[in-house]
Structure formats: structure tokens, C-alpha cells
Amino acid sequence: MEVKITTDGKETIAAFIGRLDTLASQEIAPQMNELAEAAGGTIILDCSELAYISSSGLRIFLSLRKAAAEKGGKVIVRNITNDIRNVFMMTGFLNLFEIQ
Q1: CB under 8 Å to 32, separation ≥6 — which residues?
Q2: In 10 A of CB 80, how many CB atoms?
Q3: Residue 59 needs a FRET pair 20 to 30 A away by CA distance; which of 3, 8, 85, 94 works?
Q4: Within 10 A of 64 (CB to CB), how many other CB atoms are there?
Q5: How does pLDDT run across 16-62, given as a tens digit for each residue?
Q6: What is the pLDDT of residue 43?
Q7: Could you tell me the domains of the chain?
Q8: By three-state DSSP, how is residue 2 classified?
Q9: 14 forms bridges with which residues in the sheet?
């Protein structure tokens, strides 16, 4: 699992590459904590290369959403595949996030 984080003005883009399972969630936790600290603007979670997401991965997305809401920011989930969309639909995450 790899996460590439770039900042462009008030937008921070986190591109997820690979499988976001329990082990990967633990590995990327420090990066996600840094991202949550800077959640006052817009965080874009680019999922175009995300092959799989587990409940641990969903929890990371939810934590980022909560941090952004507390700081007046927002989280946008972008470029989800059909498989990831199905997971979001089954868990109710489609209603929690702005999906582009």
C-alpha cells in the first residue's frame, strides 16, 4: 500500500495505491494523522488506484471526515472503482462523503 500526498493551495490530495487492508491501515496511520491535522481545507481522497478497502480502511476515511468537520474542512472521495463503490454502498459511506 502506498499513499502519495500532495498539497495545492487549500487542497490536499491523498492518492491511495494498492490494497487498504488492516495491515496497510496500520502502516499508513502516521501519514493519515498528519493529513487529519491539516484538515481545515479540502482533502481529496483519490481512489483511482485503490484495489481494495477493508473496515480498517473505511475507519481511516471516517476519521479524516470527522477531523475535517471539526476544523471546518471537507473530504471528497474521488475516482472510486465499481468494487469500492459497492463497499461504500453496502456500508452507507456513499451518504457520508461527497463522491466525484
Answers
A1: 3, 60, 63, 64
A2: 22
A3: 8
A4: 22
A5: 999 999 999 999 999 999 899 878 899 999 999 999 999 999 999 99
A6: 95
A7: 2-99 (3.30.750.24)
A8: strand
A9: 5, 45
